[in-house]
């Protein structure tokens, strides 16, 4: 074979080999497309919750209850209710709760009715001479022992200027504010304890006598600053008295007096 021919066959042989390799590659690629599988993808994110479904239809009414002996008569069901039990004992009171917050201010109330007509006064806001007088003196002539812890009442009125003392109730009511003097004197065959009381005093002002003589004489007095409407009265109280003395009915007398020293406007 000549050198020229040798070169031709060599090129031809190389070309043939290239064609065979291409056909083999084609066949191999076609086989993978038909039988090979790719990698699985990543799962997607969960979707939002779905909406609630529609309400279902109402079910059919159930069968009536059946007792061991047969169906129950609905007419006797109320009679089968048990009797109410007795009330249980009261429980222990719980602790006091916390104080609540102060509530808002309420609305103003309705205007009240007009008060009674006042007494006329003199010029310059001063009481007239007749209106500015107040004095009383009354006597208890009842022989019974004055009831304990009760207002002493009186049967005889000697003086009651301005009608400020009520003999039936035994109380003096201040009509003219000012400074007053009150005093009492009692006489009895037994020991007596009397006290001056007033809503102008913090406590009772008491007096007692235990001389055990045939005649017991007791006196007491006080000066008080009174405002309009304040009251003053006498009360009997028990200290060392014995029962026979409290039941005593011998002759007794109590004199109670009071008068205005000067009014608050002076």
TrEMBL record:
Region (Disordered): 37-70, 99-129
Chain segments annotated as transmembrane: 7-27
Keyword set includes Repeat: yes
Domain C1q: 129-266
GO cellular component term, pick one: collagen trimer
InterPro entries linked to this entry: C1q_dom (IPR001073), Collagen/C1q_domain (IPR050392), Tumour_necrosis_fac-like_dom (IPR008983)
GO BP annotations, alphabetical order: complement activation, classical pathway; innate immune response
Keyword tags: Complement pathway, Disulfide bond, Extracellular matrix, Glycoprotein, Hydroxylation, Immunity, Innate immunity, Membrane, Repeat, Secreted, Transmembrane, Transmembrane helix
Pfam families: C1q
UniProt-annotated location(s): Secreted, Extracellular space, Extracellular matrix
Protein name: Complement C1q A chain
